[in-house]
Amino acid sequence: MKVVLENLTKKFPNRSRRREDVVAVDRFNFTVPDGELVGLLGPSGCGKSTTLNLLCGLLTPSEGRIYFGDEDVTDLPAENRGVGMVFQNYALYPHLTVRQNIMFPLGNLKGKEKLSKAEMNEKAEAAAKLVQIENLMDRKPGELSGGQQQRVAIARALVKMPRILLLDEPLSNLDARLRLQTRDHRVKVVGDCVCRYLCGAKACNDGNNQHPSELKNAVFNAGGTCDV
């Protein structure tokens, strides 16, 4: 699915009332063609995570529009956008098992999309197998390493077969071997599940978070792209 950002801007109130608002994303124009794998690169604080949060609906733009295909989703609630998000800090439910965490998004499906418990379990098992955590399904997040928690977050984002998948440093806590394996899985899922990825890599000098097929990069500088 094509993603279009038009003059996307996000301002946050300054803690000092005498100063102007803080501009996190400044008139960002960018188009991700259907099926494109893109990396957002840049130093800390330049607006990459804010852009991802605007795309998934967790933040509302101060100005500009967001389009998924021909649909204007700028004012659409996050739960209706069909976006999967992998957060940098995992955002797992500590009181739920790995299985329950992965299944959680499926429990919110309604109408014709609603699944039986057996169907939800089957999808959760498939997502867990993709990121090699199928033997950890009955553990809770506190019993997992950082890398294992990250893989649970990836599996949870994949389980609903989202139209667009956003990842904020999705591989930063994996060791070198699993990082290579998991980024290969990302490309496999694009082909098998017809998911569309827009990947946010926060560290501009960390090429290990990207896959060779991520040929298109948007390089951020103070809230806007300086190179593509």
Folded structure, characterized:
With 228 residues, this protein is an alpha/beta fold. Helix content is 26%, strand content 25%. The chain has helices at residues 48-56, 98-103, 117-130, 146-158, 176-193; strands at 3-12, 22-32, 38-41, 63-68, 71-72, 83-86, 164-168, 196-200, 216-221, 224-227. The strands form two sheets. Strands 6-7-8-3-9-10 form a six-stranded mixed β-sheet, with helices on both faces. Strands 2-1-4-5 form a four-stranded antiparallel β-sheet, with helices on one face. Strand 7, helix 5 (176-193) and strand 8 form a beta-alpha-beta unit. Helix 3 (117-130) crosses helix 4. The longest helix is centred in the last third of the chain and has 18 residues, at 176-193. It is globular. The model is unreliable at 189-208 and 210-214 (pLDDT under 50).
What structural keywords apply?
228 residues; 25% strand; 5 helices; alpha/beta; 4-stranded antiparallel β-sheet
What would a concise description of this structure say?
The chain is of the alpha/beta class. It is about 25% helix and about 25% strand.
CA-based shape: globular
Main sheet characteristics: 6 strands, mixed
Rg result: 18 Å
Poorly predicted runs of 5 or more residues: 189-208, 210-214
How many DSSP helices? 5
The helix-and-strand class reads alpha/beta
Spatial strand arrangement across the major sheet: 6-7-8-3-9-10
Helix content: 25-40%
Give helix and strand order, one letter per element, not per position. EEEHEEEHHHEHEEE
Strand content: 25-35%
For the terminal residues, how far apart are their CA atoms?
19 Å
Mean of the pLDDT scores?
80
What is the number of beta strands?
10
